[in-house]
Records
---
Amino acid sequence: MAGGKDIAKVVVVGGGPAGLACAAELAVRGVSVALLEKRGSLGGRVQDLSCKGKVRCRQCDVCRVHRLRSQVLASELITVHTRVELEQVERNNGRYRFDLVRPNDAINAGLCSRCGKCVEACPTGAMTKAAGKIVLDRNSCRSIQGLECERCVSVCPVGAIDLFGEEHLSVNGNAVVVATGSLEFPASEEKRLGFGEVSGVMTSMDLESFLEGKMDADLENGKKAAFILCVGSRSSSVGTPKCSSVCCKYSLRQALTLKEMFPKLSITMFIMDWRGLSDDDGLLRELATTDIQVVRSRPAEIFSEGGRPAVRYESGNDVECQCYDTVVLSVGLMPDLDDDTLSQMAIPRDPWGDLKDENCADRGVFLAGSCRGPRDIGHCVADGIVAAHHAMKHLGVDHG
Amino acid sequence: MGEPMKAAVFICRAHGANLVAYRGLLKHPRVGHSEMLPSCCSEEGRNHVQLHLLGRTTQALLVLGCSAFELKRYQDIAVLAGIPPTRVAVVPFQLRTSHAAELALARVLDDREARFPAEAHSDGLCLIGEGVSADAAFEQAVAEGLNVVRIAPGDVDWNEARLTGGRGHFILEAGEVMHHFGLALISFDLSVEVDRSCFGEGDTVVVLAGGEECLRSFVSELDGALSKSGKVYAVVQETPFSGDGEILYQDLQLRGVTFLRAPDIKVFDGSMTVIDEHLGCPLTIKVRDLVTVRSSRPGAVDEVLKAFGMPPSRRPIGLVPGDSGMPGVFMCGSALSARHEDDPAELSRATVTSLVGTIGSPLPRIPLAAIDTERCSNCLTCLRLCPYGAPYFSEGRMHISAERCQGCGMCLAACPSMAISMPPSDLRAEAGAIKMGGGLK
Ligand SMILES: Cc1cc2nc3c(=O)[nH]c(=O)nc-3n(C[C@H](O)[C@H](O)[C@H](O)COP(=O)(O)OP(=O)(O)OC[C@H]3O[C@@H](n4cnc5c(N)ncnc54)[C@H](O)[C@@H]3O)c2cc1C
């Protein structure tokens, strides 16, 4: 529907767990939905997360999002727009119009003869041939990043490459659900923990990729690993002073999963205190049955010693130092302060940057998920369902 | 309506693991007679069982902890006492869990299929529970225009209550009253209590003995204490302030509250000794006011769950909000949720909202479990486990009755030969399988 208009009753911004749950709930009740997502596919952060209970379910809820995603993709009432960026949003007579742009596929598959000349010409390796198809990684393409290049365009014998082609579309809705989620704390901002400098230091997101089998790491039987919690959260200097509420839970699940994979991997967890756990989620009970060590201390720094990360931390009145093969930084969730959609819609924030519902409901805008403050998948899904209900009430949709 | 049917339960080889796994079941209200035997698979044992059955005080027979091959013999004995073979089950020692035993009990006592045809579809929602979450759920159900009945847990004698039927046609007989409904929502909150004791002069100590549900009372006690003279100590095991609560926590510390993390405290004559995990050494505080904030699970939760044939440890599973894993039964509230959310009321609203799509629709033609006969080893595990009595053995192989199968997925998880499959897109099957501790194959 290039350049076309389509009519939806509710526009859901953000395709993470909260947005998916909201869209699915609306569709079940017969309300049509336009789902806007700036990434290439749906699922939000959960696309990069791994199941953390391969042998025994630990209720990490990651599978739940994959389910929701297929439900959304299968629904006739939901139009999904991925890879879209907002140009502007307008409100007229209580109706919102979102003007969007979507970059076209840089390579016209109909014209492309798969000769591979562009792959040879590309200076950054952004053009690759995978499974007989040429694909472009937009993030490493010099031209798209604003530098001069366009070598691929000039070598292409059939003129199949257009790096800047884009498509405009607009989407209408009488209510908007904002589920734009959160960002992970960028670990390199916490200089003292050596991320990006000391080899063997990785973030919990990297560990998720490792668990998915998408990345290598120095984790196996006989090695030593450490987790450092509250990175970028509960901090007065970097990140946010709030507790991220999810990282105790996911780090424990990650550690237990690693232990399940490598019984002889030694694991130490540096924690401030356990948050958001309850007796009956069984995580602490399971922890007690393993030999995972828990140290209550917030490490002072990580430095390289003989090519391995060494952690310096306070223990009682002493300062101790321990070497590991791998150190995992459990990063917290942060609000995205630069999101243009949010500023265009003038959604108020609390002093820490998380969105607030104040005077949103009256104008047909509802919030859901971790954009309202850090929360886990289960809570985001519940949030999305509640937002769907509010949106329906706003539209005056009949029940039953 | 007459007396509910009761079962006779025998524990075979009643020692060791069998005894540990099954003893709890003997006190079940629907167990009319129970006995532990050194072995019921012997001639002597069978005679004993037969003798009891001929006394006709029970209408079903369950034998726990022996070999699966004995089933046929027990069925033969039971027929002599007028008990049909469907009312006889054996839980083999390989499946030695109280959960399996409970499901088998539900199966032998089950008479829903015969009496309640699937056409008797009801779109009513029955809300059982009390507390903030239940109130929110009720409000939400009314706002959604659902046909909702609320039963206060105190209105029913749950030990006498009898639940029959299934999703779309539940019947709860409670004393004189019969409730008909399509879906059930059980909602309870942990109840928060505050104990105060006063000892003359000194500081205030507020002890937290509970989780996030206690947070509001805990903070308000600390607030109150800050306005009085003396120091204020907060004794916790783990700080319950997750997420935004961190801001509150830091604020309290700034205002002068000293947090101590101490697993146990001793109070003697107005003087208290705590060992803070951080300090590592004992700290003695002269106490003026000792306030303890604790939470407890209402006793009615267990009773209600039992009436619904669920063990007290049952929690919602993640796939659909509040899904209990049993078709048509949902749960919410802080006492029934495995997660600590700062807002259980909001969660129960979400649960009710997500029920709207389910309740009005007629019984879905649920994806059925199918048996791969090549793989099936005829171990009869599914037959004994199925809460709906769907699997049956005939002409030398296992079948699953399309009328009875509810797609709960429990057999899927338990099948030792991995011979049972269901369309993988079905949430319910996945949910059931997770409940049973397995995954989808
Ligand atoms: C390492 C790690 C492990 C975790 N493990 C678990 C776990 O095991 N269990 C659990 O419950 N939670 C876990 N979490 C937390 C979980 O990731 C979040 O709770 C969840 O992803 C939040 O969902 P959301 O829908 O609010 O936002 P997100 O998942 O952040 O999704 C938001 C979506 O909106 C899109 N978007 C943003 N702005 C715009 C815009 N302007 N226009 C269009 N689209 C936009 C984004 O591209 C994104 O796809 C983990 C987090 C981390 C960091």
---
Amino acid sequence: MAHTIRARLSGAIVTLFIASVAVFVILRMLPADPARLILGPLASAAALQHERAVLGLNQPLYVQYVDYVVGFVHGNWGFDYGTGAPVLKEVVTRLPASLELGFYAMLFAVIGALAGAVASVGARSRVVDSVCRAVAFVGLGSPPFWIGLMALVLFAEYLHVLPGPVGRLGVGVSAPPATTHFYTWDALIAGQWGTFANAMEHILLPALTLGLAPFGYLFRLLRHSLREVSDEDFLLVCQGKGLTRWQALMRHGVPNALLPALTALGLLVAQLVAGSVLVEAVFNWPGVGQLVVNSVLAREYGVVEAFVILSALAFIAVNLIVDSLYVVIDPRLRRPSVI
Amino acid sequence: MRVVTTGEVARDPAHAEAVLVVKELTVEYGEGVGAVVAVKDVNMTIGRGEKRGVVGESGSGKTSLARAIPGLLGRSGRVVGGSIVVASTDLRALSERASAQVRRTAVSVVFQDPLNALDPVRSIYSQVAEAIRLRRPGGRHLRRPRMRSAIGALLEECEIADVARVMKQYPHELSGGMRQRVAIGMAIAGDATLIIADEPTTALDVVTQSEILHMLDRVVSQRSAALLFITHNLAVVSEFCDTVSVMYGGRIVEEGSCRDVVRQPVHPYSRGLIGAIPTIAGGRRELVGIPGDPPSLSDLERGCRFEPRCYLGHGVQVCCAQVPGLDDVPAMGSSRSVRCHLIDRSSGGGLGPAAA
Ligand SMILES: Nc1ncnc2c1ncn2[C@@H]1O[C@H](COP(=O)(O)OP(=O)(O)OP(=O)(O)O)[C@@H](O)[C@H]1O
Ligand code: SF4
Ligand SMILES: [Mg+2]
């Protein structure tokens, strides 16, 4: 056990190190001068020189890296060059919007994939199977921002059934009292049905867009493992006991088929984080992803670095949670086997 | 259509009631040109208290027959013809719900491979409890303490020691023999009168094997159930069963009372299977190899499937051209029937050149 923990921890540290070094080096190879960005096009050479010294840009790269890491651990993630606001604060205020979007995207991916897999394997529905496979193909094969644009053109521009890319709420709708910072949940808690409907309307398209790739991945995985499980003898034994085919599949097949999907959870979260950057930009969603896009365009180091490191942390955390969940769910990992 | 009668059983009025009547059963896997006919026109009647053995080499369709009866062929297989009547109910006419009801009350199945027979993520308690809830009248209302004692009694009946511990365990923590006992426990949880056991002991060691056979024997005679016992171990059949059907290439090729068939097989395939050399004890005979491979079941059936390997009929015109029927051999007593063109039915099976 101690061995496992040590292996996990060192793996996590290596992941973090590689991610942070990579983003640090890449950003510093870009032909942009932060001092120039901060001081503007009219600044004198002397002022630029001074600003570089203040920022530590004259130091060797590894010193800058160490300074950065020390600062990061202390919550000092740098400043947004444009607004002068601390990156940490900026990220924290934007995080709920991203988390809410990610939550609904994941919800759609998991429920959609499970329902699709059960219908196509369990109920042997050819129609559902073909539709889900086509959607999965599109979701995995096309960039999410393109799907988002197409969805906007279709539903907002052409059909006028959903709002355009205006953020989390319509114009003139004020945010519900903040409890969870998820507008949909907060509106429900406050009993503001109109706000709830409005928030739902606004999150629908971005969440579906963001969830499409994870849906495709999960659907393929679940479909495959459900097919394998439904040929297992134990499902037939359960039917032999007197369960119908459907009951046996739901009670014994699905839990067994879900186990391999659990492993993919870390990957799905990574997919969500990566997808969120451009999807948020397309839908004008005021989350961390949009901040990242703006920062990249403005050549701001701090935000991008923080984003990459935070994503790596999220990935590590999800994988740790999945590993511990496995032990809880799968008895085969709890105690050593006899055979 | 002839109904197969089984000599000893038919003579005993107490056993006359037929529990299972299978007629012209045909089972296929796959579709189109790749389709495999695993069972072809099988007729079988098993009466109360009768223990019927089914023997045949690997791929002869034994498992397919065993699984087709309760409707458990899985995704790729299906029954394409014939009828299956269990306890006077025609299973093929039933909906999925109704046939699940029949499986609950009237049929029990034990599968070939105990290692895959249990749900890997559920405890033994929960799986056996599910069987009791489904199969016992009133089992659905058993609360925990009474359920525990019901499960305990059932597992003890299956000769499992340390029942309390086993209940808490998961399948991967049990040996193959233990898992098979649990599987049998779930199968006999109700009071089904048709028990289908598909090579229940093949994967197990000899001691466990004989314990499990004794247990099955006890259950069958207690409820005077009908047993369909599948194996490729002839020694087991000759000790354990009343009647036997020999399968080859998806068809029954010989059938009769167990003692007679083992002592004096008539069909060339059975003779090869059972071996022509009697042991000193007279009863048991060794399984010997038959040269050649099992037939490809996807080919169109022209003539006798055994023809390419048959010492008697290889190259003989009628064997190549006509599918032989499963007909009685009056000289061997009323119960014997054989699927072969060349045996002489009037003179005790007219044992051919290889006869001992
Ligand atoms: N799921 C399946 N899909 C396709 N073909 C199958 C399937 N199961 C069995 N078959 C084919 O059906 C034929 C009969 O198989 P079956 O398992 O009934 O034989 P068996 O007599 O039980 O053999 P064994 O002694 O090896 O258990 C074989 O040719 C086999 O290849
Ligand atoms: S019918 Fe011909 S080939 Fe077939 S078993 Fe009899 S003798 Fe052999
Ligand atoms: Mg078999």
---
Amino acid sequence: MRQEIQFKLNGEAIALEVNPNEVLLEVLRDRLGVKSPKCGCDKGDCGTCTVMINGKTIRSCLVLAIEVDGQEVVTLEGLMDSGLTPLQKSFIEHNSFQCGFCAPGMILSATELLAKNHKPNKHEIQEALSGNLCRCTGYSPIINAITDLTTKKK
Amino acid sequence: MQETENKMKDQKYIGKSAVRIDGKVKVSGAAEFIDDLDFGPDLLYAAIVESKFAHAVINKIDTSDAEKIPGVVKIVTGKDFPFRFGLYMHDRFIFAQDRVRFVGEQIGAVIARDAATALKAAKLVKVDYTELPAILNVEQSLTKDAFLIHPELRYYKHVPWFFPKGETNIAHLRKVRKGDVQKGFKEADFIFEDTYTVPRYAHCAIEVHGAVGLYDNSDRLTVWTASQSPYTQRNLFAEALAPLGLSHKDIRVVTPFIGGGFGGKAGVSMEILGAALAIAMKGRPVKVLWSRAQEFYNTYQRQGLTARIKVGLKKDGTIIAMDNILNWDAGAYVEYGANVVNAAGLSASGPYNIPNVSIDSVCIYTNLPPGGPYRGFGYSEFLFGLESHLNEIAKKMKIDPIQLRRKNAIREGDILNYGGKMNANGLIEAIDKVEKEIEWNKKETSSDPNKAIGKGIALFWKAPAMPPNASSSAFLKFNEDGSINILISGMEIGQGLLTVMAQIAAEVLTVPPEKIRVETPDTDRNPYEWQTVGSHVTWGCGRAVESAAIDAREQIFDIVERALGKDRKSLYLDDECVKSKTDTNFSLSLRDFIIAGIQKPDGSYRGGPILGRGMFMPEFTSALSDPETSQGGHPNVHYTVGASAVKIEVDRQTGKVKIPKVVLAVDVGKALNPDLINGQITGGLLQGIATVLYEDMRFNEKGKLINANFTDYKIPTSMEIPDEIVPIIIEVPQPDGPSGARGVGEHTMIPCAPMIANAVEDALGIRIKSMPITAEKIAMNLKHSL
Ligand code: FES
Ligand code: FES
């Protein structure tokens, strides 16, 4: 039985018919063409599918599309209304990413952290990113970019 | 040696930590990976019918139930593609023929309208098997009456530097004999022998493998793949599908960004399915995307190793003889993995000057998934044993382990195992620097009686393993506004190749890297590159780009000379302009003429679009040598060397290891972009540390991988990083490298396992000779040693 859901995606109102077993990640990627959330494991282990629901990061491979009915979904695409965010710029300056596959999820997790905590210490950053696997960087260049941004004088 | 032109003068772009030219595309989410490409509503999906057994004969395949599922378009099996293929040895089929050789091997594929239907139908394909004895370890495989995994081995086509032993399970034996090892051991005052084992490992790139193929109605085959090797793939597709009449010119391989490779996306593994299924479904694109589980059990795995190491020394610590037997668990197919065995065999004495060496590196078939390239290409594996063993020797001989290494470290001009000479290198400098940085002579104890502190060191070396004629090429095109597009087929796999190639061209042409675009390959558009493996593209592809830039520069001077009558010898480039040493007022901006040409007084023009072309092949290498000794050839272009040291803190109860500090010094020849090298060091160290502290592939008694997911095969998260990482860059130039550079990508992972093992020994007095060295294993060993 298909079911209509309505939700906000990066500020845009979406109305869509979905099957009750359709996963949010698939709906975003395959039906709505939003490709920044990636599928690295399909099991909740890697964090590449991270998106925000009402400002909180979740793994979209574990969420059914019907669950976002009436909610607000933000993906990496939705952060850039006025260009790259200071966080993204800091990641560029620090050469934080290598292959970049983990970047969308990682950036959303870091964005969520900074929204709650303007001056996270190293351990808090590590914890905030611990659900996003990265095989290339050893994490330090990502952590350093966040630390530098939050300790820089405005 | 072919020397590079552009070096050591004042450099503006080379040697600078430029930001990545692909930084923005990656942090903005604009970077497209294979699964992000759109192929329209016509796209079909394939799911694989997989072997349930490690070793079995296929009697019958019944597809009738699967065919009945609505949405199923076609089912393909081995009989549709009875062609052998492989990179260095043709021992594989696209789909299993009469036999399966590992759990998960592809037997057939169901092509359907959507992925879920394909998967459902694939489960309904019934395969009737007769089980054969499954050989799950090298000991079993080497027994005299072992069941033959490849009875036709003796007929397989392979490269001339492989030596398969027909009627056995030995696919290749690399023998190295240098000096007189018997005599060496006779003259030795001490002989130490031991055995070390390394299990299999998975690359765990966060992006899985995938391929999409389209064989259109004009007989053109395009395959989009997540790959490090577009040209090698095109060549292998053409070879494997040659019976169908495909020519290289009609095959196109496109490789968008890949989400990590680490060797796992080199050569051809599952991508052959993309090509074959496209052929089977002419006119429609077909996609095959691995699941995370398939990523674990049906791509290349790092091979397992049992290494027996025997070392003879004089009283003063001089190593005079070494005899190593390396038995590699190479898996069901070794078309790529046999070259890992080969390369490791040539270098398994480590970065030491040893007059008498005997090495047998044995590539052994087993009924486990195919082994293949993984960052380090065999060197991580043998160095675990060798560098652990040297510490044991130092302990028994009461010599400082660093002293022992310094005394025997290989130096420029020393004779390598195959008779060639060692290149210029900064190994001693690396040893000195890590010794100082880790405060080797300062004994440290923890204030917590439950914790023990230990320090460990390991040296490393590695040469690119490549065929002697592996080559790179580049095109460089100027645009109207003076910006540049560079076309190469070296692959951006995260290492920063695009950026470094832009820096190399920038230096020659004085155009800043921000004005240079370099993109991932498309074999229709970008010129040849062998593959992006072996830490060789900065060096090889870098030389090609450098020569393309020089070629463009010479054309520029040509035009200025012809159009304006300037003395060519006086011309030089500066700040995106042509200037003259003799006429200091002369300055002509590149953008004014690199497409449009230069106008003469009569209104006509001279010049035209500037197109640089460059190529590089290391013409001094050769794989021809005596099969009994490996003497005579020149298989390796150069070695990159270095040293690494670590300080650990171990919990005496739980065995848990924390890493307060790790140092790695590597001689990169010339750091073209120091920040990107630091990135290789930070990333490589954690990947290496993970192999020793956390990761381990586990197979059950039937040969099935039982931890094919990230819950059970744990790779490190941001919580598991060392507290402090100190990268040290050493620059002893490589005469034939671009600006003196040599490769560094793999090397940063190689020393990790033995260095941690040595630190554990230093902290607790226990020597663990089998990887991984997990907390549980340390805790168990501690209990037993009480
Ligand atoms: S794809 Fe969702 S956590 Fe890995
Ligand atoms: S940059 Fe490659 S996975 Fe993070």
